[in-house]
Amino acid sequence: MEKTLRELAELSGGELEGDGSINIKGVSGIREAGPGDITFLANPKYLKELHATKAAAVIAAPGVDVGGRAAIRAKNPYFVFAKILTAFSPAKKYPGVVMAGAQIEPGAEIADGVTVFPGAYIRGGARIAGNTVIYPGVFVGEGSVIGSGCILYPNVVVRDKVIIGDRVTIHGGSVIGGDGFGYATEDGRHYKIPQIGGVVIEDDVEIGSNVTIDRGALGDTVIKRGTKIDNLVMIAHNVVVGEDSILVAQVGISGSTELGHHVVLAGQVGLVGHLHIGDGVKVGAQSGVMNDLEPWEAYTGSPALPHREFLKIQAVMRRLPEMRKQLNEITKKLERLEKEKETEKEGE
């Protein structure tokens, strides 16, 4: 595939700078790019490497020195890069048939254009809409509904009573609709509480590998439209995740916690149950969230604190050894002064 720089600028919505007739054959990183490639600069710390790149053109923000190269200018170079990379990576085509070796129980409804690979198992009462792709080893439970244009990669498990919207991607090994972790304790023994709710995954959600999203105890666990979930995330029963949120690897969310829209939880963030996390909240890596969080604020630490407050505490903590030394010196000085006063009183 080959496109001119002008075509790429028009396709991506960026502003062309320089020779638009340059032919671009591929997209590469700053270090790897060759004479026929376009690269991008989204982080200023790579500016020195940009000046040394062999790329024919660069995607960069307005005002960035690109060393005289032809460029596509954009306020968000990373977004323009994503659109251009998509153009060079056309969607894979699937045959749109149920292949030999796929197990489809009576009563399952498979729409035209669905691809089901050998080794997949679809229970009766399940419904799968058109142009969805079901890879080998996928299990779809009784009564579950999967929308159109979805991709379920190998060994995804979709249990009973799960509803998945359109254009949802679920990567290998994830389990959607497993039992919530609910037990009643009596006389020192734990009795399982039946988990009879479901899971609702709305449109345009992407779920990474080895993610677990538990079914609700009574109602549903809900992942709202446009949310993106990284690998190894655990979402407990009756959690609600708002629209366009980002959950990074190893996040854990306890039961009945509700997240607003555009929430960002960085890697290894843990949330206790029954919390309300406001819209637009950002929580730093490895933070432990024990309380409700106000909207459009950043939090860090364990327990999670407003980010600026956390930074002030960290600044003090770095000085603790010095402050301890000063405190010891002051204590010794006070002890000497007290002894001197006692000696003076005895001499009177």
Count of spatially separate domains:
3
Largest sheet: 11 strands, mixed
Overall SS class: alpha/beta
Task: Estimate the mean pLDDT confidence.
Answer: 95
Please compute the radius of gyration using only Cα atoms.
Answer: 28 Å
The CATH superfamily of the largest domain turns out to be Hexapeptide repeat proteins
| CATH class category label of the largest domain | Mainly Beta
What is the general shape? Answer: flat
Distance between the termini: 101 Å
- What strand line-up does the widest sheet have? 10-13-16-19-24-27-30-33-36-38-39
- Residues in β-strands, percent: 25-35%
Poorly predicted runs of 5 or more residues? none
* CATH topological fold name of the largest domain: UDP N-Acetylglucosamine Acyltransferase, domain 1
Helix content: 10-25%
Compact overview of the structure:
The chain is α/β, with parallel strands linked by helices and 348 residues long.
Task: Tell me about this structure.
- The protein has 348 residues and is of the alpha/beta class.
- It folds into three domains: 3-87, Udp-n-acetylmuramoylalanyl-d-glutamate--2,6- Diaminopimelate Ligase, Chain: A, domain 1 (3-Layer(aba) Sandwich), CATH 3.40.1390.10; 103-308, UDP N-Acetylglucosamine Acyltransferase, domain 1 (3 Solenoid), CATH 2.160.10; 320-347.
- It is built from five helices and 39 strands.
- It has an eleven-stranded mixed sheet with strand order 10-13-16-19-24-27-30-33-36-38-39. A ten-stranded parallel sheet has the order 8-11-14-17-20-25-28-31-34-37, with no helix packed on it.
- A hairpin with a 2-residue loop joins strand 21 (183-186) and strand 22 (189-192).
- It is flat, with a radius of gyration of 28 Å.
